[in-house]
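# nightly structure sweep
# worker-07 picked up a monomer target from the shared queue
# config: single-sequence mode, recycle default, output format = structure tokens
# input follows
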Amino acid sequence: MSDRTKLAQTEKSGDGVRAVERALDILLALDSAEQFLSVGELLKRVDLSRPTLYRLLQTLDQKGFVVSNGNPQRFALGPSVGRLANLWTSRSGITPAAQPVMQRLWETTGETVSLLVHQGLQRVCLAELASRQPLSFRRGHGYSEDVCKGASGRAILAFLDDPQNYLPDTISSAFREAFLRELNRVREIGYATSRDELIRGAVAVAAPFFGANGRVLGSLAVFGPSVRLNQERIDTIASELAEGTRDLSRALGSY
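# output follows
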């Protein structure tokens, strides 16, 4: 009997606590610099047989703790992890550090200001200061969206090492090339914009912030209606966001 077969039999006879431990080992293995890992790469990081790994990945996928992309499949942390991280980070370093920056942006722009963090294929809203203007846009604390969509998502995606891994397999090669060119432009100017993309009549301007290891953590975004946010106003907000995200990144230990 091979070692793998013995391992598989031992795993099948294990109790529920051991299964939880192994599932947590998988989640911890996915929390690495490589945002997406193949089954082969995961097997190097966890002491599991291939059948057991697939079975646990399927369960984690059903509960939203992992997501898969590509063929062959590669796995990353899913939105359920983001929701748990949202609860934790809102009580820890990022949200308190961002509050004075957000308050300053809210006062100078008069528009809705949101703090978003990157989690797997999503970006999740940790905090938001809603505009007092009668006509305004807001997403709300806990709101999550595909990291490929909107200015706040692209401001994050442009500064990841492997942005292509986040694009759906169903898009055309022409769209993929155009999207990657747009990410290059965002990287060059330091911020992203969107108009009428997720909400008709809405304009968003977003810039990334970074942690102690220089890794992009999320973005700060300003949302407002197109009747107030012309190009001149967008340029001003982009400048204010650049200053704000520099301050936030420094507060989080990025130099």
